[in-house]
Design a protein that fits this description.
This protein has 398 residues and is an all-alpha fold. The chain has 16 helices and 4 strands.
């Protein structure tokens, strides 16, 4: 019981995360039959044990990280940023395909055999880095020229290295950086200029990929195809995954077929990861889907509460920077499953099977819990980090 005595931070966040993780075993075990009987990969028990092991490591990350004083993350972001850039460059340099599959998203960890998606780590590190910069310049007159090298150069380097293999992740990261900058008081007129620059760069990238398709085979065509299928639902070439997801949701009804009784899990690709929300609705109905959505919204509420309660500008921005993307990603995953958004390949945080995404979500949650520790807030005030009004960072933007 000493372990539970050492748990600190927001108890509601601990409870929500634990409930989501426990619930994940049911749909992951059910949907893993697709990998076993359709793909021919392992056993359902093996996939369940693997999922349990990954979550166990994830909660170890949460526990370890939440013990780190929150102001330490400022310095850690400066150390981690160049490491992340090197990892992203190495990942991209592996080539666009291996055995016909996109390989420029993952690197394989030696000895243990796990694959690691570097963009997930980059997303967390980048948000901490941006929060650190905004805190540093909070009392200065911000000019676009002064912020180009220390802020926007690292941001665009990270996004450029992720974009060729994973447009949706790059787009989400760009949106979250803009939101955090807005909350941190960065001038809106400069943010509009950054948005324009981003659109211009994306246009140039697409045109380059069209002119020289061998540089990024299939990626741009895949993006365009997904958008076209979303915009033209009556198209006979509509996305197979979305069609199966819609069938799963429609057959679930109000209360669902029951745990483990999904039919579409045997036909829906990525049923245990990208489209697990459709399987959840098929088995637990619309009620189950709304309950799951409620827990993510509760997590969002607690993130905002922790940010408001923190007594330092860095703590506020850090919590929002690493916390909002978790809920944002969850909403995008759900929106894709019900065809409110084009297919993105984003997993459902803490629910979908997969190692890197779960670990990085746990890393972000550990950081939030670190910022929510009462003793840490007192320590930050004592060392003179900041004693501003807890509502300043949010109310100043309204």
């Amino acid at each position: 019981m000493n372990f539970f005595k050492n748990i600190e931070g927001d108890k509601a966040i601990w409870a929500v995360v634990a409930l989501l993780a426990l619930f994940s075993f049911l749909p992951v075990y059910s949907a893993s039959s697709n990998l076993v009987y359709v793909v021919g990969n392992g056993t359902t028990g093996g996939h369940l044990v693997k999922h349990a092991f990954l979550l166990f490591l994830g909660f170890g990350i949460i526990y370890g990280v939440h013990k780190i004083p929150v102001h330490f993350f400022k310095g850690l972001s400066l150390i981690a940023m160049p490491i992340v850039l090197v990892l992203l460059l190495f990942t991209l340099a592996q080539g666009t395909t291996i055995d016909g599959a996109n390989a420029s998203r993952w690197i394989r960890i030696p000895l243990v055999g796990f694959t690691f998606q570097t963009s997930n780590l980059a997303a967390v590190v980048l948000m901490i880095y941006v929060a650190r910069y905004l805190t540093k310049v909070k009392d200065e007159v911000i000019t676009f020229k002064k912020s180009i090298l220390p802020l926007w150069l690292p941001v665009f380097l990270v996004l450029i290295l992720i974009l060729p293999a994973n447009f949706s992740t790059a787009a989400i990261m760009f949106s979250m950086v803009l939101l955090l900058c807005f909350l941190g008081g960065y001038p809106i007129k400069y943010l509009l200029g950054i948005v324009g620059t981003g659109i211009l760069f994306l246009t140039l990238f697409v045109l380059t990929a069209k002119v020289a398709p061998d540089m990024f085979p299939n990626r741009v065509d895949t993006w365009i195809s997904r958008i076209e299928n979303f915009a033209n639902p009556e198209d006979t070439e509509a996305d197979y995954q979305i069609e199966r997801a819609k069938i799963a949701i429609a057959s679930g009804g109000l209360i669902g077929r029951g745990a483990g009784k999904s039919v579409q899990k045997n036909f829906l690709p990525q049923s245990s990861s990208d489209f697990i929300y459709a399987i959840i609705i098929e088995e637990y109905g619309l009620l189950g889907g709304f309950v799951l959505m409620f827990f993510y919204l509760l997590l969002l509420f607690r993130i905002v509460v922790v940010a408001n309660a923190n007594k330092t500008i860095f703590g506020k921005l850090l919590v929002l920077g690493v916390g909002l993307p978790i809920v944002f990603q969850a909403m995008i995953n759900m929106a894709v499953a019900v065809e409110l958004f084009p297919v993105t390949g984003q997993t459902l945080p803490l629910i979908s099977s997969g190692g890197t995404s779960s670990w990085m979500t746990c890393l972000a949650i550990g950081i939030i819990l670190s910022a929510s520790r009462k003793s840490e807030e007192v320590e930050d005030t004592q060392i003179g980090m900041d004693d501003s009004n807890p509502l300043e960072i949010l109310s100043g933007q309204l």
